[in-house]
Design brief:
Two copies of one chain form a homodimer. Chain A has 13 helices and 14 strands. Chain A is an alpha/beta fold and about 325 residues long. In chain A, the strands form four sheets. Chain A has a seven-stranded parallel beta sheet, with helices on both faces. Chain A has a three-stranded antiparallel beta sheet with strand order 7-6-8. In chain A, helix 1 runs parallel beside helix 2 and helix 4 packs antiparallel against helix 5. The interface between A and B is large, with 43 and 43 residues.
Chain lengths: ~325, ~325
């Protein structure tokens, strides 16, 4: 069994690529839930949904989130209320788009959680509904919330930073509220211990992988089996393919490069997969304590994705 | 000021008709909330929404509920989850249709209630959003829930009876859970006491007007000013224009006729407006203790509606 630590888009693509190399039913994605939020009373799990919809071939390929063939009638109708809400109210938020078809997922999740089901249980049911062959588990059944401190003062939720502010403002700190009390979802500790190898997907090291690592059990388990843990750098040529990982790394005092990523991951992973554009940094990655494996890591075609998956698994097993 | 005790469709049409006779800003609709339910985590108030949408000229005229120009993409997408939910779960209910545009109303209401606003406050905001000129207030800010006991055993919520079972099964009892602890919404007692007259709209006497009357303060206030309270019979020629009022009356031991209605309302209202088809029952209505006023009460045109409103107000003021 292969375990993959996952954020959203990058992880979703990697899990898809992995299915060309190993039986998908033998793959477990352990997905960040610290981006989760409640809007309109609905339980929203952006990373879980991005991974699920991607693996179901239902994702909108251009946006990278939400469903294809989507409509936005509920959101359009919400504007009427945003225009009249009292000044102190944040009801009728129109900055977070929820497609009409996508809403069904949040309806189901909210209703099931209200019935007492755990997020793990609901996630398995949603995966079944979409006939996802991989197993997906939330990192925790308890609530963990990423809080971002902005350079100009004030704390915002991750979604406010990421969506409302278009991740366009500098940040000075990130913390994961609830992480110290939360535990891994049922079965995840066993998965992390017994998996043949663990892949850290090409996701944001701070806000996607960071919350998973913030759970007390995770880093010690990974460190104890470090040689079979491989990370894929989400930073290529100094930049993130998508999202604010590069800026966040800089703003929080890291280096936006494969070397900066290696410094973050070297306590828990022996190998870092880097793109050929970063080949010249391989010695610096090794100095940071990780073996560098060089292979194309922009998954621009199924073939490149499959090769990236193959090389990653090989890197984790040859140590 | 005119106060109108309201259920859904019949009351909505009557309030609309009333606006041709008196300044709508001088009208207060006190609306049944015992049909309210929570679905998908969303706070749904069917009667309030029917009245609001009707007065905003936004109601779907054929269905009589929900918005015109509506789409059903979220509901369609929900079926996927209904197909996989565990056997004991009632998540992803597809029997209660919520249109995509209509969802915005439930989103806003749910978010505002979550922020601590009262249902009265949210209702006023929703009315403002739709530029409804009448004032609408929920009967109570506390939760009251109609529970219907079916003849073949078992209790169901009002919406399960009305929508899921298409009000097609016999009932043996109706009760309003929470009514004895609930109080009238703020201001409603004053409205009931100071209104020039009170109209009981042509709504279901059992499940629409019944819950309002089940609140401790209501019947004594109405009884004390009985001569200026006028009811419009929702039963015409022995049948309800819409909904199960006729069958419910029979099943619960009343008579499905203007006489049965008069027996229910005579303690609190002096006058019953009945349609010419029931003119022969006027003496029996009077025997039941209510003055019978005969005027066309099927609001099939704005003119007939306006005349019904005019006659009703006149009946309440001439006593």
């Amino acid at each position: 069994m292969i375990a993959v630590l996952c954020g959203g888009v990058g992880a979703a693509r990697f899990l898809g690529a992995l299915s060309h190399v190993v039986d998908p039913s033998d793959t477990v994605g352990i997905v960040n839930t610290a981006d989760d939020t409640v809007l309109h009373g609905l339980a929203i799990c952006p990373d879980l949904d991005t991974v699920t919809y991607t693996l179901a071939n239902a994702i909108d390929p251009d946006r990278g989130w939400g469903l294809s063939d989507e409509s936005w009638r509920a959101m359009e109708a919400l504007q009427r209320y945003a225009d009249v809400r009292p000044q102190r109210s944040v009801a009728a938020p129109t900055w977070f788009n929820l497609g009409d078809r996508d809403l069904a997922t949040h309806f189901y999740r909210t209703a099931r959680l209200g019935e007492g089901a755990t997020l793990s249980e609901v996630t398995a049911e949603i995966c079944a509904a979409w006939q996802v062959r991989q197993r997906l588990v939330p990192m925790s059944d308890q609530r963990v919330s990423t809080v971002v401190t902005l350079a100009d003062g004030g704390d915002v939720s991750f979604q406010e930073y990421f969506v409302k502010l278009h991740h366009g403002v500098p940040v000075t700190a990130v913390r994961f509220v609830g992480a110290s009390e939360a535990t891994l979802a049922p079965g995840v500790e066993g998965i992390l211990k017994s998996a043949e190898c663990i892949v850290i997907a090409p996701s944001n090291p701070i806000v996607s992988i960071g919350p998973i690592r913030a759970l007390a059990e995770v880093d010690p388990i990974l460190a104890a089996r470090r040689s079979s843990v491989v990370a894929i750098s989400p930073i290529i040529g100094g930049a993130a393919l998508k999202g604010p990982a590069d800026r966040m790394l800089n703003e929080l005092g890291h280096e936006s490069s494969v070397v900066g990523v290696a410094r973050l991951y070297s306590p828990v992973a022996a190998t870092l997969v880097i793109d050929p554009v970063d080949a010249h940094l391989a010695p610096a990655v090794e100095d940071a304590g990780m073996r560098a494996v060089i292979t194309p890591s922009v998954m621009s075609s199924p073939e490149i994705g499959a090769e990236l998956a193959r090389v990653s698994l090989l890197a984790a097993s040859v140590q």
